[in-house]
Design brief:
Length: 269
């Protein structure tokens, strides 16, 4: 019997790295990707390929390499992404476009490259990394939140399209996770003094939340569950904070929910 094959984008660190290792432990042959594999610390059982999800030719070439080597991709984990902070008015359109090129169009490129092979085999799972800010508002991260809302809508719609072909498109929704997210997120390129004080407050809050956030292994276990559950769910929250956030969104009255969001983000009024 062939071992199942998983392709994990953005696997050099953080959630992607933990997911790649967890999938190896679960019995998968795993191919991880990074924009520059020469700088990647080797991971036991994970083969690495250079990939830029913002480049059509790079995506096509990597997917073909995986099929040439293994003849299949059973699970695609779309983890590669970038963050961004700042008030919506402070992020230029070009800055937002650069983020969407990775977080949204990068996912679409990977899906379009892998899906025909999965559909032809009549099986496969596409796991897209969303976030709690894919279903919650996130002041001072509006552009990033918008990209995750886009992934939510895209994935749910895609799942309805491909189920009859034996393929599922699933969402994993982490909350704050202890990674380099905050440090690696671009700052606004058109900062405005009117938002400066509140932006600094948010930055401090985000730094503390990530420092005390879930271990990436928590999210990795959920990714493995999404990859292997006999009857997978469309959405998987990852960690207790994400679970509580999902419940708040579903059951809290609108006014209570609005006040809680402002309180959590230390916003006046």
């Amino acid at each position: 019997m062939h071992r199942p094959v998983a392709l994990v984008t953005g696997a050099s660190s953080g959630i992607g790295k933990a997911a790649a290792l967890a999938l190896v432990e679960a019995g998968f042959d795993v191919v991880g990707t990074s924009r520059d594999t020469s700088r990647v610390t080797p991971l036991g059982g994970v083969a690495f390929l250079d990939l830029d999800v913002a480049d059509d030719a790079s995506v096509t070439a990597v997917v073909q390499q995986v099929f040439d080597r293994f003849g299949r991709i059973d699970v695609l984990v779309n983890n590669a992404g970038m963050g961004m902070t700042g008030a919506a008015e402070e992020n230029s359109v070009s800055q937002a476009q650069a983020l969407f090129e990775v977080n949204v169009f990068g996912v679409m490129r990977m899906v379009k490259a892998v899906l025909p092979h999965m559909r032809a085999r009549g099986r496969g799972r596409i796991i897209n990394l969303s976030s709690v800010v894919g279903f919650l508002p996130s002041p001072y991260m509006a552009v990033y939140s918008a990209s995750k809302h886009a992934i939510e809508g895209y994935s749910e719609s895609l799942d309805h399209e491909v189920r009859e072909h034996g393929v599922r498109a699933l969402l994993v929704q982490p909350a704050y996770t202890s990674t380099g997210f905050e440090a690696n997120s671009p700052r606004p390129d058109t900062p405005l003094e009117v938002y400066a004080a509140q932006r600094r407050t948010f930055d401090h809050m985000l730094e503390a939340a990530i420092k005390n956030g879930d271990d990436p292994a928590v999210v990795a276990r959920v990714i493995v569950a999404a990859a292997t559950d006999p009857k997978p769910r469309l959405r998987y929250t990852a960690g207790p904070t994400a679970g509580r956030a999902s419940a708040l969104r579903r059951i809290a009255p609108a006014g209570v929910f609005d006040k809680q969001i402002r309180k959590l983000n230390q916003l006046a009024g």
